[in-house]
Amino acid sequence: SAVISQKPSRDICQRGTSLTIQCQVDSQVTMMFWYRQQPGQSLTLIATANQGSEATYESGFVIDKFPISRPNLTFSTLTVSNMSPEDSSIYLCSVLVFSQNTEAFFGQGTRLTVV
Amino acid sequence: DQQVKQNSPSLSVQEGRISILNCDYTNSMFDYFLWYKKYPAEGPTFLISISSIKDKNEDGRFTVFLNKSAKHLSLHIVPSQPGDSAVYFCAASQAGTALIFGKGTTLSVSS
């Protein structure tokens, strides 16, 4: 299994500012994933964070808006840049663990409100 | 294009009865399927999973059924309890890549 500590758990930010979300995993993992859950919507994959290389972004998400760092195998950050009210959402980091079964573990989530 | 679909946004069930949550997918390359439960202000919690080589997996009150020909899976909860009330997400993965989630079904179990 994996335990993920994600912070902050929530924040209220002014439009035009940036917020960096941190995720710390209690074990080394190759890939970390960042998701967004907008109100009433599914979890949408933003990007895959790989250690030692640039993150891979899904369609509709760009590095300038959501820069990601992955300095080592246990830590990653996601920055939401130049925020607007449309960025208000829950942001979650996740890791996949391969053992007898494949299972994804999630951080507690960051509830972001942009005013 | 939504690859994982949960067409029922909500489901209400009486305590003790069976809850059946459904999920459809379009990508035949998915080889692993998972169900997650999510409470407000918390991250998703893993419930149960199934590999594409199986058609059924059971864990206590939770059973997942997979019908590959119909590209359909379902989660059965028997008996349902009020504490099961939450949003349930179906998710699929291809070759160990990131999970693709459905929109979720809100289950309400009344006592």
SSE topology sketch:
The complex is a heterodimer of chains A (115) and B (111).
Chain A: E1 4-7, E2 10-13, E3 19-25, E4 31-37, E5 43-50, E6 56-57, E7 68-72, E8 75-80, E9 89-98, E10 102-106, E11 110-114
Parallel strand pairs in A: 2-11
Antiparallel strand pairs in A: 1-3, 3-8, 4-5, 4-9, 5-6, 7-8, 9-10, 9-11
Chain B: E1 4-5, E2 10-14, E3 19-25, E4 32-38, E5 45-51, E6 56-59, E7 62-67, E8 72-77, E9 86-93, E10 100-101, E11 105-110
Parallel strand pairs in B: 2-11
Antiparallel strand pairs in B: 1-3, 3-8, 4-5, 4-9, 6-7, 7-8, 9-10, 9-11
Q: How much is the average pLDDT of chain A?
A: 91
Task: Tell me the radius of gyration of chain A.
Answer: 14 Å
- Supply the number of helical segments of chain A: 0
Strand content of chain B: over 45%
Please provide a written account of the structure.
The complex is a heterodimer of chains A (115) and B (111). Chain A is mainly beta. Chain A contains no helices and eleven strands. Chain A has strands at 4-7, 10-13, 19-25, 31-37, 43-50, 56-57, 68-72, 75-80, 89-98, 102-106, 110-114. The mean pLDDT of chain A is 91. Chain B has 111 residues and is mostly beta strands. Chain B has no helices and eleven strands. In chain B, strands 2, 4, 5, 9, 10 and 11 form a six-stranded mixed sheet that branches. Chain B is globular, with a radius of gyration of 13 Å. Chains A and B meet through strand 4, strand 5, strand 9 and strand 10 of A and strand 5, strand 9 and strand 10 of B.
Describe this protein with a few key phrases:
heterodimer, A: 115 residues, mainly beta, seven-stranded mixed β-sheet, four-stranded antiparallel β-sheet, 11 strands, 55% strand, globular, B: 111 residues, six-stranded mixed β-sheet, five-stranded antiparallel β-sheet, 54% strand
Condensed summary:
Chain A is mostly beta strands and 115 residues long. In chain A, 0% of the residues lie in helices and 55% in strands. Chain A contains no helices and eleven strands.
